[in-house]
Amino acid sequence: MPLELEQSRSILPGLAIPIICAPMAGGPSTPQLAAAASNAGGLGFLGAGYLDPAATAALLDATRELTVHPFGVNIFVPSSDPVDHAAVAAYRERLLPAAEAAGVALPEAGSADPAHPDDDFYDEKIDLAIDREVPLVSFTFGLPSAQVVAKLHDAGIAVVASVASVSAVSSADALGVDAIVVQGPEAGGHRATLSNHEKPEHVPLADLLLWAAEATTAPLIAAGGVSRGSHIAELLASGASAVQLGTAFLRAEEAGTRPAHRAALTDPRFVETSVTNAFSGRPARGLRNAFMDAHSSHAPGEYPQVHWLTSPLRAAAAKRGDAESISLWAGVGYPETKSGPAAAILSALWEDALAARAEHGGS
């Protein structure tokens, strides 16, 4: 039976541990990881980005088999921005030598993938979430329409928006969403900007959270570079209802992180993170590598066109274990990642948070 909407809305304050395992599209999010987080008292999320409806359904069904606790799924909001096809074509020309060296063919610039439309099966995924009675649906790369919010609410599903600026908090609040992920610039992976060409802000998460709390009464989920229990305690004390971590779970046993990516997180060759749009066309933070150095200043801000353009290069590099040529998404706290079961990682973070809170006179 689906949860009543009021029950769904009470999931965040009702969590035994207010830690959310972030949705990480492209492999790291697995049913096993999401279920482990939920089973441990937190909240697990799946990333449905880049998947077709059949793969999304399989992900939801597998997770349902592994937990009786609430979990969520994240859906990409399709872009309505005009596409600069000439810029995509120029970037393709720049990447051709790398493609030739890797023995792969690049898709023609501006060519649509008939098997995967640019809207990432948006409507189909919303319908799947309703059909599978997923308790929470979060959105990134934009805000859902009021009609989509109402449709999910009618099905008893809580709606979570993802934003990276105070102005976006106000826009999300006006939609009547049930919670808002406030993402600071320290976050790994894609920034939660509302359009392809929006310039990411650089307001630190701690400050952004305080300003967001003045702009809305909706529950806030703090995200971005969180790697320590003490940081979790500080964010909860500053008004967050929960804290969302992704990078912290990349080395979890249940994560689907590619071997080269997993190894790079502890490889001394990689010493810093940087923001780039070279891999997807959207700004995203990852371990600085050779691909970023070579192409970041030339990549156009066109998503998903750049994502699909670089896909053959990234797949070939992952197959040969070349960490210098794949997206190594990671937040600024990546040096503190731990390996082991996700439940152990989550529990250790919460124990550290409780200790930090007690040290500062909290309860």
The CATH architecture of the largest domain is Alpha-Beta Barrel
- Residues in helices, as a percent range: 25-40%
Which class of the largest domain in CATH terms? Alpha Beta
* Integer-rounded radius of gyration: 19 Å
Strand order of the largest sheet: 1-2-3-4-5-6-8-9
Total of helices: 14
Count structural domains: 2
Structural class: alpha/beta
* The CATH topology of the largest domain: TIM Barrel
- In percent, how much strand structure appears in the residues? 5-15%
What's the total count of β strands? 11
Mean pLDDT: 94
Unreliable runs, pLDDT <50, ≥5 residues?
A: none
Keywords: Detoxification, Dioxygenase, Flavoprotein, FMN, Monooxygenase, Oxidoreductase
GO molecular function: dioxygenase activity; nitronate monooxygenase activity
Family: Belongs to the nitronate monooxygenase family. NMO class I subfamily.
Cofactor: FMN
Task: Report on this structure.
- The relative contact order is 0.16.
- By secondary structure, the protein is an alpha/beta fold.
- The mean pLDDT is 94.
- Helix content is 39%, strand content 13%.
- Helix 3 (31-39) runs parallel beside helix 4 and helix 8 runs parallel beside helix 9.
- The chain is globular, with a radius of gyration of 19 Å.
- It folds into two domains: 12-79 and 118-266 and 333-361, Aldolase class I (TIM Barrel), CATH 3.20.20; 82-116 and 271-327, no CATH class.
- It catalyses: 3 propionate 3-nitronate + 3 O2 + H2O = 3 3-oxopropanoate + 2 nitrate + nitrite + H2O2 + 3 H(+).
- Belongs to the nitronate monooxygenase family. NMO class I subfamily.
- Its cofactor is FMN.
